[in-house]
Amino acid sequence: MHFAPWVALLAVTKYAAANPFVISDNSQVEKRDLAYSEPYYPSPWMNPTAQGWEDAYAKAKEFVSQLTLAEKVNLTTGVGWQGEQCVGQVGSIPRLGFRSLCMQDSPLGIRFADYVSAFTSGQTVAASFDRDLIYRRGKAMGEENKIKGVDVLLGPVAGPIGRAPAGGRNWEGFSPDPYLTGVAMAETVKGIQDAGVVACAKHFIGNEQEHFRQVGESQGRGYNISETLSSNIDDKTMHELYLWPFVDAVRAGVGSIMCSYTQINNSYGCQNSKTLNGLLKNELGFQGFVMSDWQAQHSGAASAVAGLDMSMPGDTVFNSGFSFWGTNLTLAVLNGTVPQYRVDDMAMRIMAAYFKVGRTLDQIPINFDSWTRDTFGPIHYAANEGHQQINWHVDAQEDHGDLIREIAAKSTVLLKNDGALPLKKPKFLAVIGEDSGPSPLGPNGCADRGCNMGTLAMGWGSGTSDFPYLVTPIEALQAQALQDRTRIEAVLNNSASSTIETLVKQEGATALVFVNANSGEGFISVDGNEGDRRNLTLWGNGDELIKNVSSLCNNTIVVIHSVGPTLVSDWYDSPNVTAILWAGLPGQESGRSIVDVLYGKVNPAARTPFTWAAKREDYGADVLYEPNNGHGAPQQDFTEGIFIDYRALDRAEIDPIFEFGFGLSYTTFEYSDIKVEKINAKEYKPTTGKGTEAPTFGNYSTELEDYLFPKSSFPYIWQYIYPYVNTTSSLKDASMDPEFGKTAEEFLPPGVLESAAQNLEPAGPGLTDQPGGNPQLFDELYTVTAKITNTGDVEGDEIPQLYVSLGGKDDPPVVLRGFDRIRVEPGCTAVFSTTLTRRDVSNWDVESQNWVITSSPKTVFIGPSSRKLPLSAPLP
Ligand SMILES: *[C@@H]1O[C@H](CO)[C@@H](O)[C@H](O)[C@H]1NC(C)=O
Ligand SMILES: *[C@@H]1O[C@H](CO)[C@@H](O)[C@H](O)[C@H]1NC(C)=O
Ligand SMILES: *[C@@H]1O[C@H](CO)[C@@H](O)[C@H](O)[C@H]1NC(C)=O
Ligand SMILES: *[C@@H]1O[C@H](CO)[C@@H](O)[C@H](O)[C@H]1NC(C)=O
Ligand SMILES: *[C@@H]1O[C@H](CO)[C@@H](O)[C@H](O)[C@H]1NC(C)=O
Ligand SMILES: *[C@@H]1O[C@H](CO)[C@@H](O)[C@H](O)[C@H]1NC(C)=O
Ligand SMILES: *[C@@H]1O[C@H](CO)[C@@H](O)[C@H](O)[C@H]1NC(C)=O
Ligand SMILES: *[C@@H]1O[C@H](CO)[C@@H](O)[C@H](O)[C@H]1NC(C)=O
Ligand SMILES: *[C@@H]1O[C@H](CO)[C@@H](O)[C@H](O)[C@H]1NC(C)=O
Ligand SMILES: *[C@@H]1O[C@H](CO)[C@@H](O)[C@H](O)[C@H]1NC(C)=O
């Protein structure tokens, strides 16, 4: 990434602009008609009595109480981009023998490391609708991270949730349905943390597109904007959609949360006091720490009091050598701008998260280096200093390849089947498409997977890992064909029309056409797609390829590898297209998993975790591709509210091609006997009362000399971020920026420093409750059951789904509120049983700032997809 030098200056002078408290020189933000974020101060401090966090906080207290101010600041501030081995590392505490904490991408494996697995994407595993499988994926990823010495795994993702189908990073997350994403967040967090690694739920919040997420990146592409995109989200939509899955992550005990590049209501995600202090730390009672996305921090003191706990990667912009925190945070405490309790709170939250996952002071060494595969090299890569062994090439894969194959197969959605599948020793297979074969550059040929060659098994960007191997579809198909004595020929060039025609029109051909659509993170642009997809059609003329093949071959089976829905209207209903499969982004076992499904070794059951609409416009919400606010922050108004994906089409009564939750099996199921039972739960009581006074842990020296860089102990590493000052003449001199010759002046209004006990939120947890919200929101109010009979000839999994109609005029026709994946033998009947919590049947009430069960009549529905709901019953 390259940034013009003046971008750094912008970051310094504009830090105040987005903070409503600081007098702003940015006329754009002051314009009355722009969305505005209300202040929420002071920043809620940790609550050591929160259920599930007691032991972690007892250990954190013991540790943090011993620390000096500089040591605490070290815990909060990254040492700078490429300063150490991991994508992010904070300072260390040598006096106590505590090495620096290691944060590492990505949500589907370990980025920048060797001998690690490349897992199925989040969006793909969401299609399994299988809690246990999602948990096992998280656990396996956690195990690999632990072996490599990673402390914080930067995932899972609920932002983007997938507001716009073209959103570049939707595949890193799970589904545009908040209930499904919430379940997947919780299971993944539990899996990762049960393996002893801190999970990081990201990106908080409203981070729904790549365009304009960063100023430098946008300017590099010719968009002359001075502030990043603002996601303008109303309070009800925030609670019922975007915040929902983060609630599940917090309730599952997630140790960290990453704030986003995007602004929310024109206040930067990492200094938005309403979202961080208000929603996350007070209303949800989140007890872990908030870290910034890389370069998403835009202020020092303002972000500290708004609830940020860790600055990543520590420098203002990559390799500037300066930091909003580090020295600045030390000085901000010394000069009284940031209260001591806030820095103590940051340190406590960080250490509590660390202890919560079972870590001890006996740390696991970091045994890999993100920046080179060389065994020996500079441990401080940016500075090219500290030559030593930096890579131990530890194999962390264990037996995860088998698990990945299972996940990918169980997540493959059968969208159409006219009897063509499963394949049974076919006589002649014609395999067509670049997407079935290898890339000539190898599976890791493009940095961060930033190209589209060969079969697609991962999107691009920081949410990737290096493939240890990639079994392509053609390899696995060929192996199967050899066993079956099937004639098999492949054409791996989408443009080789005449060759393809000659092959597929031959008598008896079963054509398997592999196609794809890719996307990724905004720092890489592939074929004009600046992270977000520029269209929803297939890449590499995929749609033409399918049309050509199916015009000549009456048994054309299509396999789509994609990052979300594509427009299939042109060909999906051709009688010659006899089957369609969505295999998502399967990861390293792509070929073997698709063969498992095609040949019926795994009976498909997965369900599409998003809607396949006939037209792009049907989705109602889209990416903003052109700035719409002059040079100011592009404004993305979420005017569709909670009506994204199936809720949008259902409300507008538009028929999708394949609806949310849809997927076929090689057997058939029937639904019967819905029963609703009311459970007696206590009446809902808003949380009342106050928290505690802000605690502090240990004293700090007010002598500037005690913060002087200890030149005699160790050398200054170039561009490295420290907590120290260079001069003892005055606080003002110490905070003089040698680059710009001025101090980083930040003045905060009174009140943000308040340390008295604060009111608890009515919708939030009490002092001894589990984080996530008022505990009564999770009371079970109903048990709903139904019978499911396998009416076909083969064993299979069925995914019964429960939807609720909340009944109000502003409510979607139905919302998902329960599901299970159940194995049923042919001829047998199984019982699907699920419960509905108070939260499941409530709406967010803006007035009372709480959840309420409205008086509108409510109905539950059960069926195999969002549009096929044969059973229904009123909710008493
Ligand atoms: C954004 O503005 C809307 C409309 O005023 C408001 O409902 C919502 O709470 C605001 N959100 C934040 C995070 O400030
Ligand atoms: C802060 O971290 C740096 C980098 O790990 C280390 O060199 C320094 O000694 C630490 N300072 C303190 C006060 O622990
Ligand atoms: C970008 O916009 C600013 C005004 O905010 C203007 O001063 C500058 O010249 C513009 N730069 C380019 C390259 O158009
Ligand atoms: C302190 O922060 C300002 C931006 O607010 C930055 O310009 C300056 O370089 C920082 N100082 C240090 C020592 O990193
Ligand atoms: C693919 O086929 C087209 C048409 O025959 C040809 O022009 C092109 O060179 C081929 N590409 C490769 C990589 O062989
Ligand atoms: C859509 O984008 C892909 C990838 O950039 C490209 O291959 C394809 O030609 C585009 N489709 C249309 C219809 O423009
Ligand atoms: C289906 O395939 C046959 C060849 O098997 C072809 O003659 C026919 O035109 C195709 N039909 C369509 C609708 O493409
Ligand atoms: C395709 O056409 C052939 C020859 O006309 C016929 O034997 C076969 O049954 C057809 N297959 C399908 C799947 O319709
Ligand atoms: C402190 O001194 C080091 C080494 O000379 C220099 O690189 C750094 O920029 C200085 N920091 C400040 C805040 O002046
Ligand atoms: C205190 O120091 C911080 C960090 O350098 C700076 O942003 C702030 O303006 C200073 N405040 C005062 C009152 O000097």
UniProtKB/TrEMBL annotation:
Reaction(s) catalysed by this chain's protein: Hydrolysis of terminal, non-reducing beta-D-glucosyl residues with release of beta-D-glucose
Coiled-coil regions, chain positions: none
Organism: Daldinia eschscholtzii
Family, as annotated: Belongs to the glycosyl hydrolase 3 family.
Signal peptide: 1-18
Domain Fibronectin type III-like: 798-866
InterPro entries: Cellulose_deg_GH3, Fn3-like, GH, Glyco_hydro_3_AS, Glyco_hydro_3_C, Glyco_hydro_3_C_sf, Glyco_hydro_3_N, Glyco_hydro_3_N_sf
Keyword field contains Glycoprotein: yes
Keyword annotations: Carbohydrate metabolism, Glycoprotein, Glycosidase, Hydrolase, Polysaccharide degradation, Signal
GO biological process: glucan catabolic process
Enzyme class at the top of the EC tree: hydrolase
Protein name in the entry: beta-glucosidase
Pathway linked to the protein: Glycan metabolism; cellulose degradation
Example of a GO MF term: beta-glucosidase activity
Any Pfam family hit: Glyco_hydro_3_C
Documented EC number(s): 3.2.1.21
